[in-house]
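> tool_call: predict_assembly(chains=three)
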Amino acid sequence: MKDIDKWNEAVDPDNLSDDENMILDAMGLNGSSRRKFLKQVSAASLSIYASSFFTSELFANTMKDLPEKTTALLNEIKVNIKVNDMVKPLTLDSRTSLLDALRERLGLTGTKKGCDHGQCGACTVIIDGKRNLSCLTLAATCEGKEITTVEGLAKNGEMHPMQQAFLKHDGFQCGYCTPGQICSSVALLEEAKNGEVSYVTEDLKKVQSGLSLSEEEIRERMSGNICRCGAYNNIVQAFKEVHTGNDEMPTWEFATQEQMDKAKNA
Amino acid sequence: MRPFTYTRANNKEQALQAFTATSHYLGGGTNLVDLMKEDVERPDQLIDVNNLDYKKITSNDKGGLTLGAMLSNSETANNKEVRTNYPLLSMAMLSAATAQIRNMASNGGNLLQRTRCPYFFEVSMPCNKRDPGSGCGALNGMNALHAIFGYSDSCIATNPSDMCVALAAIGATVEVQQADGTSRMIEFTDFHRLPGDRPEKDTTLSQGELITAIHLPKAEFSDHYYYLKIRERSSYAFALISVAAGLQVESGVINKAGLAMGGVAHVPWKLTKAEEFLAGKKPTTENFEAAAELEMKDAKPFEANKWKVDMGKNAIVRALTQAFEREV
Amino acid sequence: MTKSINTSGVGSAINRVEGHLKVMGKAKYASEFPIENKVYGQGINSTIAKGEIVSIDTSEAEKLEGVLKVITYKNAEKLKTLEGVRPEIATDTIAPVLQSNKVHYFGQYVGLVVAETFEQAQYAASLVKFEYKKDPSAVIDFEKSRSKAYTPDNDSNYSRGNMDQGLAEADMVVEQTYNTPIEHHHPMELHAVIASWDNGKVTAYASQQIIEDAKIAISGTFQIPKKDVRVISPFVGGGFGSKLNLDRHVIMAVMASKMVDRPVQVTVTRTQMFTNTNMRQQNEQKMRVGAKKDGILTALSHETLSHTSTTQEFQEPCGMVSKMLYNVANNEVTYKLIPMNMQTPFAMRAPGEATGSFALESAMDEMAWKLKMDPIEFRIKNDTQTDLHEERPFSSRLLVECLRIGAEKFGWKDRKPEPRTNKKGNWLIGYGVSAASRNSPYQKTHSKVILELDEDKVFATIQMDATDIGTGSYTIIAQTASEYLKIPVEQVNVELGDSDFPITPGSGGSWGAASFCNGARAACENAIKTLKNNRNIAQDEEVAVSELLKKNQLTKFEAEGMAEPSAEFEKYSVFSFGANFSEVWVDKDTGMYRIKRMVNVASAGKILNPKTAYGQIIGGLTMGVGMVLAEQTRVEPNFGNFITRSFADYHVPVNLDLANIDVIFLPEEDKIANKMGIKGIGELGITSVAASVSNAIFNATGKRMRDLPITPEKLIEAGLEEGVTA
């Protein structure tokens, strides 16, 4: 199959995108180690996993190379999609959801399709500062709107603090709901700052801006993002750490030998 | 999804003019787009009314607030005037769906939410609401989540909205723009309709009418309010049963009660008898129980949803209790 | 940015090595590979439960712009079909589709539309008209079809001692039936594939748990050589058993690609995830437990009535727990299956244990209540270090430690044994406990290591066809290589999910961690052994791997390795053990309840990475909470379809349903299990959670809830106002 070839191209270590450099930085690979590692990646030329790390094509700056139009579009509409500070003019089928426009037309597959019916939150993106579901948003309605997807959260070569916290607290397993969880969390930080209320808020009349959210509040407000792997507790910890600025401690421990002996001989 | 043309309206004239018998106005799309994906809704034109200037909250001449139809549920529930004067409405709206959906969903659209009956959603099954004349699959099928009040042989579905339950308790008025350019007012209790033999019609809106505003009366329940929502999981689920309860209490006596129930009928079920019973009475458990009994004795459950009668009674008493006991 | 330089080997709580990709949205799942020229396939499902397709009208669909093909049984390629009466379903079973006009269940694939755009494919699929002849003999009602039950012919029925005698000896008998509904896995990633047929060679980017078996199933279904099939699945967005075997959408995509000569993407819809990607079947489990006054068990029987499809057989081993968990001389386990017009059920997370433990651990709680014994002491009293079913010792069994250490952490001593005595306002508060066990298999695994020297640093790449379905495979394999090569973990690159890599058993059945890591270990050990042998260096001499490469004058070296269970392993029964504790608050008016906190103690051998292991445990607990709280798929009695057909009807737990969870790992290495001392942990977490919650609900309310899920309406029906009804 011809399409596989693009996955096998050698990676040019002198010509990496910001994103690629960022990932390598995060892995602690610098200087000659980085050079070596990249050489090894191209050597392992059949590795899809490795190329998914490093093949430039996957990263956002390729948006400009994507076709503006495809075949078999009904009721064509033209929309300038402004996503992650880039504008892409697209001709779309009027039926196309923002989710499908992102994934199938713009190569931005970070936003996930989990149900396509507004029942899981995996497709959450931030539109004009608010978290929305891209699966129930028709792309046709997005003219003039500013869209941020998970790919657009990192700035200046640094992951968003929420992304770092999710990594540190293992706020995911399979990773499929993760972009939605992170977009949702980032938007929630703002909602708390703005003093927005929730169903579990004790007194709706007394709320001020700059809310410090309780665990119950965080859980309620993050309930629109389903994680079937069940990483909720780690997600809460990740959010809390960014929200409060205080380190969150793990809730696992190993039994001590003393506990073991006591239990055995009880 | 069936093909449709997309028309963006920049003012109400454009919207009204573009409307045809097979058009739908597009608000937040959280219900409509979902139903189009399911092939339940089949418009051949969507008229995007999101740019229309119905996004304000203003004072009205009744001493209450007027909510723009195109304002999002989030903005409405979080509005300071709304949450301090109509916290019952805020609470009900916040119990619904998720932050993402509330950010998208419009006030006007919320009034037009369609039922969650699975027979309505599955196009291979009969449903008079979706496909008039095809029969009601739920009547002799699985109806544990269906209506116990006001249903007909044609349809036993329930209305899924939380916001509408609070609006029924508060007593709102809906303003709509008619095709001829004039507007009319609809009392909230007249807005939704019981299924009768026309279950395909959820509301009393005429073809092409556009909701522009929801008028709230002078605030009466800002101190004693509670929206109780019973559901299968603690969030992001439609109500099994919900109760909106507002009380105005003066010198230990109930001046006025606003009560409505969700999950029990084709419309937000206003509990008029209980409201009337409670007026002038003391806010005691005995009176709350009597009020609940008065309403629930008329319930006509199916074998599979008998539990709704007991749960409904508990829910009314509990919502009233929580409303009364709330610290002012 | 945080430079999380991972320098630790096995046992360290390092961040996931692939985590950056996931939090940045860069990890590529099956439908996300930018394959040029790809088109979209949309499956069409039957709308009857049994019968025949009488006619098909594809004309309207075919004339739509952009529609390339409508495939039905009339023009589908002939495939290998299933043989025999209800052959057993396995992870490498062929998946023939669109082969005849026969319909065996509601939702069966009856067609596929291929179009240039996703929108047109979906629309066209709705326009293909099928006319059916309904067969009224469809078996869709479990209750009404009991007489059709048969005993599966797979030696799963079992007995030891004499059940009647055991019951006769008992002072107390508990005889109760526990029901669990059909449940669905619902990983967040919809099952998906991009398949290409190119001159007889198949490439499939497919979301699969077991790469080798997916390859076998494709080659078997199309009757083409295995070498001509390549399956790629570097990231899997959750599986829980639903992606163990190859489902029919993959076969349809391959077939379509051959017909339209373009790569074809098929994404299963969430509604199709109910009908076309496996399920856990409904189980009715009748338990009979006999015990002496002092708490000694005298008899235990576990009868399961369940269902399979009319075309294939699957039996969930619900009774497995009852055969091995307690010291009871008289024991009986039986199974019966009703062939029903539904898709074939298959393994869902902890098949057997998850459901069986609900029945057993609820019955044990009922017996403890009858005996007026503490439920923990009752279990400890009946502990055994020998698997009475296998007639072998356990390789290690620390269940008593799990229970006692957990009780202390949880504050079990504060529990009020009498139900309905712990109240706060409208809340009735209860504590519950349950014991957990999960078989811990270990399977033959191949792996390859590629070492490369750069100045003084050695970079290693481990390759195998293993998958990471969220379980942490990438991370623990990297840690293993780091440990055995004695190099920092950031110098290890792990490449998984490609059928061009060495064969592993894939992810499933809790065997992944032990198998993959021992496989990686074997490759690393082989590399070092060979490098030493080549230069006549004693095997026990400590030499850095960089030095070894230098001494061999190599800058690059590859080695393969294989690990498999030892003869010693076969002499033991190898299980992971655990204990679950829950505090539940039930609202007496609404029937809603909140799980306020949970404690889980896990004895699962060597913990390779406590961070990812914790994820496995809380993930299992969360799914267990789903079982008890709300998860159920219901069958429409007149049409035979699943009336719960979306995420709005089938409620999985949300964030607010969970609460604080403390997990305690026991410090254990089970060297009998395997050289690295690893046991399974992926399914231990879900086991018996439902029982610990329902036992807590009994303690809170005095109502014994024997049908899952325990919903507000069931609690209201049970009557929460007063009384204890054991």
